[in-house]
Design brief:
The complex is a heterotrimer of chains A (about 475), B (about 180) and C (about 550).
Chain A (H helix, E strand, L loop, with lengths): L4 H11 L9 H14 L1 H5 L14 E4 L2 E4 L16 H10 L14 H4 L4 H14 L22 H9 L13 H13 L3 H4 L17 E3 L2 E3 L15 H10 L1 E2 L3 E2 L2 H9 L6 H13 L42 H8 L1 H4 L26 H9 L1 E5 L2 E5 L13 H15 L9 H8 L6 H5 L3 H6 L3 H11 L9
Antiparallel strand pairs in A: 1-2, 3-4, 5-6, 7-8
Helix pairs in contact in A: 2-6, 7-20, 8-12, 10-12, 13-16, 15-17, 16-17
Chain B lengths: L22 H7 L1 H9 L1 H18 L6 H14 L2 H13 L5 H10 L3 H13 L1 E3 L4 E3 L48
Antiparallel strand pairs in B: 1-2
Chain C lengths: L4 E3 L2 E3 L2 E4 L3 H12 L4 E4 L7 H9 L3 H5 L26 E3 L35 H5 L9 H15 L2 E2 L17 E2 L5 H10 L6 E3 L33 H10 L3 E3 L3 E7 L5 E7 L5 E5 L2 E4 L5 H8 L25 E7 L12 E5 L14 E6 L4 H10 L4 H14 E8 L8 E9 L5 E6 L3 H21 L6 E2 L36 E2 L15 H20 L1
Helix pairs in contact in C: 1-7, 1-12, 5-12, 9-10
The chains are: A mainly alpha (about 475), B mainly alpha (about 180), C alpha/beta (about 550).
Main location (chain A): membrane
Cofactor (chain A): heme c
GO molecular function, one term (chain A): iron ion binding
Chain lengths: ~475, ~180, ~550
């Protein structure tokens, strides 16, 4: 990102004393790093070279309609080129634009509210001087239906859920853990996905980082709980996961987490990744270090050879003979994941036992992986597991086939006590995930409004939009 | 393009020594005509004897019992006279020091074909019987084992994407100099 | 997006494509993308990838050793395709090289590229001028330069990985780089190149329709060594990918739909195609343009079988050229055991090929050859031989290992010349279950190929010497390579050709016959990419014609 002399000059004349004419290069670099930590590009840049950096135009699905990210380059006409640092800070921390417009909380300003003043200054410097202005609007503009287009309603929502203050260290944590907490709670906005949402989609008390739905995926418990969380992981393993998107014999990132690794975590300093790991391990950590009696979700299952039970049962020219989960698994999955579920020797194709996906209490992420595949670039390695949804290069699987494969894999290689998958479960994941309460009641909103519940409705609307970002296929 | 590097696998697991949770269901599945084999102490002794014979002829100690069951049933169903031949082979094996000695003794006793049938079943996974051809094993057929350190079993890729790139096969110490140069 | 209209089983569409293999499907995809409603009719079943994978694993050992790539694909009982374990004699063969023309092709939605090995070669520019340069065979009515853009497009559609160093390209005349870089060589390919290339063999990378990186949702090749008869993971291009791409654009595919009659009007334009469904009920497709892309054996069979009152000798056959000039790259195998282990079998089915003898002045005298380093693991063949030899125990393992890692299997293709006497005709006695005559083929490879065989065997003996082999042997009977060409050959003169340079029939202004059938020269390389390029060239001509 070069700053041309001209743009710096133009900016200086407009922004007056908001910032020194020549921003300190170190400050810009630091701001760039903070923008990476905050993963601003995930929403404000179209993926894989489809658009210019921070020019917006990325679609974020919400149950109430598509939210299109905006141009946050220093373009005066289409971006934030006329913003003072205070304007910038209000947008990032409070979700209020310079012209008074309220942002939808797809922008995680509730988390960003905790950004320190020093970091905010650097972030501002980067967006003003480190990002090339793009003098064009995004191709699409957000237009949610009435009454959700009443953006002032977000002010009411903010009263309930946003409006936090800059981060202050927790006296109970050491310096490294506090650094980790700052990243997790503000820039990393981990809780946006990894904390469950209640009826009104606010955080559930006591369930901080205990896991939550993200579109078709489930963002699992990432607390230090040794059974349900990642307490059994070494700190180095957590850092490796964030850096590479995978830890052999434990887990691999897919869906939104693959994007987070690709755009954000892999670029973070090792110290910061270590700090995240150290902090996460303190959350819900057991009072005393003892080996739990129950296997964690990353330690479930064992190798089982599927071949002896199915080989030679049908003639070599059979048509339409693959009916059971084992037969379908053998035909569609075993080429890579192997007939015993162990994956490839180098674990480029991961083992299906000792895997957080199959060891989970629910098959949601297994179903989502089958339907959406894995597509992740990290550390110079592009991992692609093909999907089996419409348009698949391998094969398009039906809901029944996916249910049968999922049940076979969970029972054979993973958590045998996981809830059984039905075709309805597959359909839910295919349709983009569970529909929140608010969207379910949406058809009744006119009636609600007629009875005077306007304020309630607009609050609800804000909640529903809360950071459930999900890429539109 | 850099080669991907990966960690060690979580467990030292090979296809050959997997937990055979399925054996029970397999036995149930093929219980039909040969039910007697597994369900009585005598039948079990017969199976153990056949396994012992198979271990000697193949040189492998970790033969899959469910596959042994299917092989034995299929061969005996195809030709009931085979049961007696295998009892005779078992008798010969008591004094045979190794596979070659047993094969030679079997040939002398007119049981050479019976040896070939057993070896062929284990190595190819197919029994081309007098009456019909039966497929019992694919990945577990022993023929792939002698080269499993450098090759894969076709259709199963246990080495990951592009595994053959830039890697030397076992026992080879020098990557050739290419003329012309290629990747 | 426009789709065909259905009415009681009858169909009205802009374009009717008969055959849903790589050629028909790519043609359909292009035309659907141009906004036309397209119906694809395929005689065979629609199968799933996993079914083919499991069928192969469930196939008897002997069939696998014998490379039975036909038997695992289930067939519609109403539309037989060739089978050889045992032979079903669906195609009647006669002539001196009848046994060398036992083709393996599928009648299945997606076509025979279900079990191809993804070699995606181009003809050399000179291959299109055989008569004017070497005084043998025929010239094409189009030049390489006219075909070249369609080669590029076909490579893009099929996701071809090839060498981008011109020194490794055959031919290097290209206007665009390969969509993906070449499939990397294994140790065996590299060692072979190191030994043989100083002797002029020119072992080069085979351009392959296979992913060497994630490509448009297609996974990276994992070298599971099973390209033939089925890629288990979809890393290799199959015609079914283009079928699905066409369907995503509105095209509709009907499986088990066998076309048997074509109606013509007073201008001899095709007005309708009639087909039988699986219950032998007849239906009718009306369209503005018709494409017959059933492969070079079934296309002439259909044209001949669909004779009507205005075209009593068959469709497009006013000058008795339909069914003539049948070609295939008749081939043979050469085997030897190298003194050193080469470890062939690492990676996909084939990655390198000797193109040294692909061209030269000798082509005025005898056939060109290309020599593929066969790379499917030989463990099964080694086991078969070692068990037969009586090995047991540890010795058996050692023998399997020796044969597998030291063995070399070279697959050699020979270049035929177009001969009007090599032809497809209709059987007078044998009918398929719908009552349509089965095909008969007379085949004689001719002295040009026989001389080429002799020359090649001598050259290969020298190659085996480079590896200190003492057991060199070459097969003496020629085998088919399933590269079926001819039968509706293209040319400028309707008296000795069936189509023009756009694969359009001389006799019918709205009938195209793209694929292997119109190819007037075979070159010595696999025909699929050229067939695909001709399909796309025809598709552009169809679009231009429909717009006019």
């Amino acid at each position: 990102m070069k700053i041309t002399a001209l743009s710096a000059l133009v900016f200086a004349s407009l922004a007056g004393g908001a910032i020194a004419q020549t921003a300190d290069q170190d400050l810009i670099e630091r701001g760039k790093y903070i923008a990476t930590m905050g993963d601003c590009a995930a929403c404000h840049t179209q993926p894989r070279g489809a658009g210019k950096p921070y020019a917006g135009g990325y679609a974020i699905a919400s149950p109430l309609g598509t939210i299109w990210s905006t141009n946050i380059t220093p373009s005066r006409e289409y971006g934030i080129g006329t913003y003072t640092e205070q304007d910038f800070s209000d947008a990032v921390r409070k979700g209020v634009l310079k012209d008074g417009t309220h942002l939808y909380p797809a922008m995680p300003y509730d988390a960003y509210a905790g950004i320190t003043d020093a970091d905010m200054k650097a972030l501002y410097a980067y967006f003003m001087h480190g990002v090339a202005p793009v003098d064009e609007p995004p191709a699409q503009v957000t237009e949610l239906p009435f009454p959700f287009n009443l953006r002032f309603s977000m002010a009411a929502w903010n009263l309930l859920y946003a409006g936090g203050k800059p981060f202050t260290p927790d006296a109970g944590l050491n310096a490294q853990e506090n650094r980790g907490k700052y990243i997790v709670d503000t820039l990393g906005h981990c809780a946006s996905c990894h904390s469950p949402r209640g009826l009104l989609m606010g955080s559930v008390s006591g369930q901080y980082l205990r896991g939550g739905s993200v579109g078709p995926w489930y963002a699992p418990d990432i607390t230090g709980d040794p059974v349900h969380g990642i307490g059994s992981w070494a700190n180095e393993e957590i850092a490796t996961y964030l850096k590479t998107g995978r830890v052999a014999g434990k887990a691999q990132a897919a869906g939104p987490m693959a994007e987070a690794v690709e755009h954000s975590f892999q670029h973070m300093a090792d110290d910061d990744l270590g700090a995240i790991a150290a902090y996460l391990k303190t959350v819900n950590a057991p009072a005393t270090a003892s080996t739990p009696s129950v296997a964690s979700r990353t330690d479930m299952g064992q190798p089982v050879d599927v071949e002896p039970g199915i080989r030679g049962l049908f003639p070599e020219n059979a048509h339409d003979s693959l009916k059971t989960g084992a037969e379908l698994y053998s035909g569609y999955c075993a080429s890579c994941h192997q007939p015993n579920g162990a994956g490839s020797r180098n674990q480029a194709y991961p083992s299906l036992f000792h895997n957080s996906v199959t060891g989970a209490a629910s098959a949601t992420n297994l179903i989502a992986t089958i339907l959406y595949g894995v597509d992740r670039e990290a550390g110079g390695d592009h991992v692609l597991m093909p999907h089996f949804n419409t348009g698949s290069y391998v094969a398009v699987l039906t809901d029944q086939e996916i249910a049968d494969i999922s049940n076979f894999v969970m029972e054979t290689y993973g958590n045998p006590n996981a809830a059984k998958v039905t075709t309805a479960d597959v359909q839910v994941v295919r349709d983009g995930g569970p529909v929140p309460f608010l969207a379910k009641v949406q058809p009744h909103i006119p009636a609600l409004m007629a009875t005077g519940g306007v304020a309630a409705v607009v609050v609800l609307a804000g909640v529903i939009l809360l950071v459930r970002r999900r890429r539109i296929a | 393009m850099p080669s991907p590097t990966y960690d060690s696998p979580p467990l030292s697991v090979t296809t050959r020594r997997t937990v055979l949770v399925w054996s029970a269901s397999v036995l149930a599945l093929f219980a039909g005509g040969g039910a007697s084999f597994a369900q009585t102490p005598a039948a079990n002794a017969e199976l153990q004897s056949f396994l012992e014979l198979s271990r000697l002829l193949t040189g492998y100690d970790d033969l899959n019992e469910a596959i042994a069951q299917r092989i034995l049933e299929t061969l005996v169903t195809d030709d009931p006279a085979n049961a007696e031949k295998y009892r005779q082979l078992a008798g010969l094996s008591a004094t045979a020091s190794d596979a070659n000695a047993l094969r030679d003794a079997a040939r002398t006793a007119g049981l050479g074909d019976a040896v070939t049938d057993i070896v062929s079943a284990w190595y190819t996974g197919t029994i081309a019987g007098k009456q019909k051809t039966t497929v019992i094993a694919y990945n577990d057929a022993l023929m792939y084992r002698p080269v499993e350190d450098g090759l894969i079993v076709p259709t199963y890729c246990d080495k990951g994407p592009m595994w053959w790139r830039d890697t030397l096969p076992p026992g080879v110490t020098r990557m050739p100099v290419n003329v012309p140069k290629v990747l | 997006m426009k789709s065909p209209v259905f009415n009681n089983g009858d169909v009205v569409a802009d374009v009717c494509v008969v055959g849903s293999g790589v050629v028909g499907a790519l043609t359909a995809e292009h035309l659907a993308g141009e906004g036309y409603s397209v119906i694809m009719l395929d005689a065979g079943l629609r199968i799933t990838r996993a079914q083919a994978v499991e069928n192969w694993r469930n196939m008897p050992f002997a069939n696998r050793v014998g490379s039975d790539y036909q038997g695992l694909y289930p067939q519609s009982p109403m539309a037989p395709a060739p089978l050889y374990w045992p032979k079903n004699n669906y195609v009647g063969l006669s002539g001196p090289d009848a046994d060398g023309f036992q083709q393996g092709y599928l009648k299945t939605v997606g076509g025979t590229t279900w079990h191809w090995a993804a070699s995606s070669w181009r003809h050399l520019p000179v291959d299109l001028k055989m008569h004017s340069v070497y005084g043998v065979g025929r010239d094409w009515p189009i030049s390489y330069d006219e075909l070249e853009p369609f080669y590029c497009l076909a490579e893009e559609k099929m996701g071809v990985a090839g060498p981008n160093d011109p020194a490794l390209q055959s031919p290097p005349e290209r206007s665009r780089p390969y969509p993906m870089d070449m499939v990397p060589w294994s140790y065996g390919d590299k060692r072979m190149a190191e030994v043989v290339n100083p002797h002029g063999w020119n072992l080069v990378p085979i351009p392959q329709g296979r992913s060497t990186q994630p490509w448009n949702g297609r996974p990276t090749c994992c070298g599971n060594n099973n390209c033939q008869p089925i890629c288990p993971i979809g890393a290799m291009y199959n015609g079914i990918h283009s079928v699905e791409a066409a369907e995503a654009l509105g095209a509709v595919t009907l499986a088990e739909s066998v076309v048997y009659r074509l109606d013509t009007d007073e201008n001899n334009r095709i007005t309708a195609a009639h087909f039988y469904d699986a219950q032998h009920v007849s239906h009718r497709v009306e369209a503005k343009a018709f494409v017959i892309a059933c492969n070079a054996l079934e296309t002439p069979r259909l044209l001949l079988a669909a004779a009507n009152e205005r075209n009593p000798n068959g469709i497009a056959n006013s000058t008795d050229q339909v069914g003539r000039y049948m070609m295939d790259h008749s081939g043979f195998h050469a085997y030897f055991t190298a003194k050193e282990p080469l470890w062939l079998g690492r990676g996909p089915a084939q990655s390198s090929c000797m193109v040294g003898p692909r061209d030269g002045a000798f082509r005025s005298e005898y056939s060109a050859t290309k020599v593929i380093l066969y790379n499917i693991t030989a463990a099964h063949k080694a086991a078969s031989a070692a068990i037969k030899d009586g090995f047991v125990g540890k010795d058996l393992d050692a023998e399997i290992r020796r044969r597998t890692i030291n063995g070399v299997d070279l697959s050699i293709s020979l270049e035929p010349l177009p001969d009007p006497n090599n032809r497809v005709t209709l059987s007078k006695t044998r009918l398929d279950p719908h009552g349509i005559p089965c095909p008969e083929v007379y085949y004689d490879v001719g002295d040009y190929v026989r001389k080429g065989y002799q020359a090649s065997v001598e050259q290969l003996r020298g190659l085996a010497d480079l590896f200190e082999a003492d057991d060199f042997h070459a097969t003496t009977s020629l085998n088919a390579n399933n590269h079926i060409m001819g039968g509706a050959i293209m040319g400028n003169d309707p008296r000795n050709s069936v189509t023009n340079g756009n694969c359009r029939a001389h006799d019918h202004a709205n009938l195209w016959l793209p694929g292997g059938a119109p190819m007037p020269s075979a070159s010595v390389v696999n025909s699929t990419l050229t067939m695909a390029a001709l399909g796309l060239k025809a598709a552009f001509d169809i679009a231009a014609t429909l717009k006019a």
